[in-house]
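Quick one, tokens below:
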């Protein structure tokens, strides 16, 4: 389906969207895509990882409002639901934090999702789109992995995100809430965190731009299914306007598989730094070695991942060159 039609349908079907995690990486791109449709958008973020700079460009838009609010704070959250008819729940406690504070993952990704669902039900929200993760599968047992693959998460983060997904399914089943789950894989692009808790492309780009060797955990043979952030944001809008998505779960992955060694080599080449070399360290606990993901279910509905890997990397590097 063409992006123009998706955006027209959003403005025809909805008047006010809530994006949680709006000051984060993916949330800020979902907001950008939504503001382009002309509907009102409220961003909810605790700023534990989000940045004001990610949404500063939207502050002058009369259709945009940003609120500092924690999704685990039900009473405050409730005050911001008036008029909201579509929710894009992106807020989450993320992977690397969980090894240090697994209870926070459980609270944000489990209870936070539960709060959002209760309020969506009580406030008559028409559509609830939930950001999940490929980490709910754990190691691949059957490839390619489609949405029926066994759910055996191997990290605290994966377990807590699976809890969130299950609450989504339960609210759909018990109350008829119109929900859709998107399982993301290795999303990358401008505004991704490039520090310790960031994504591998952002971390490598920053290291190379700062003249440091990129660090690879493990032997670099691990495969990732890199997905450009604008495609991920557009997939959110797409499922919100497409019939047949109620109660469904979709892998949201570009289908482009690259090893971490190949990624490091591509970035060193694009940034013109043959003098730098990857440095190898011990595998990270819970790291998944191989992703072979089927995106056939989402593409079967008519969604297209439009950005090829080189174009996505170039756009991403343009952004990081302005920072480092
Ligand atoms: N980036 C990826 O590759 C990837 C892959 C799989 C799944 N996901 C999922 O996508 C979603 C967005 O991730 P992202 O990469 O943009 O991460 P991010 O950390 O940039 O964004 C998450 C945002 O949620 C906010 N947040 C965290 N706890 C909160 C709370 N209690 N209340 C309100 N806001 C809170 C953070 O401040 C941050 O702005 C998450 O649900 C994540 O699990 C991301």
């Amino acid at each position: 389906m063409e992006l123009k039609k998706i955006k027209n349908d959003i403005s025809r079907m909805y008047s006010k969207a809530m994006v949680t995690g709006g000051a984060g990486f993916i949330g800020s791109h979902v907001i950008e895509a939504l503001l382009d449709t002309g509907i009102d958008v409220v961003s909810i973020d605790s700023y534990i990882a989000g940045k004001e700079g990610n949404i500063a460009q939207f502050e002058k838009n009369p259709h945009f409002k940003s609120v500092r609010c924690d999704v685990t704070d039900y009473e405050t959250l409730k005050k911001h639901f008036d008029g909201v008819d579509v929710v894009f729940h992106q807020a989450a406690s993320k992977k690397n934090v969980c090894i240090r504070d697994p209870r926070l993952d459980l609270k944000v990704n489990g209870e936070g999702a539960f709060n959002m669902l209760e309020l969506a039900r009580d406030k008559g929200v028409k559509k609830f789109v939930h950001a999940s993760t490929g980490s709910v599968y754990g190691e691949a047992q059957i490839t390619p992995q489609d949405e029926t693959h066994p759910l055996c998460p191997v990290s605290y983060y994966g377990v807590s995100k699976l809890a969130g997904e299950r609450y989504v399914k339960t609210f759909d089943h018990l109350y008829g809430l119109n929900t859709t789950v998107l399982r993301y894989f290795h999303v990358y692009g401008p505004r991704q965190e490039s520090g310790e808790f960031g994504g591998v492309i952002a971390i490598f780009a920053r290291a190379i731009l700062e003249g440091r060797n990129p660090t690879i955990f493990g032997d670099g043979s691990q495969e990732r299914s890199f997905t450009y952030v604008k495609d991920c944001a557009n997939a959110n809008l797409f499922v919100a306007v497409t019939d047949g998505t109620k109660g469904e779960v979709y892998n949201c992955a570009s289908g482009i598989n690259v090893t971490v060694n190949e990624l490091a080599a591509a970035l060193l080449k694009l940034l013109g730094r043959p003098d730098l070399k990857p440095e190898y360290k011990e595998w990270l606990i819970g790291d998944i070695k191989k992703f072979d993901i089927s995106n056939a279910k989402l593409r079967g509905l008519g969604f297209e991942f439009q950005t090829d890997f080189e174009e996505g990397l170039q756009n991403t590097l343009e952004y990081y060159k302005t920072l480092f």
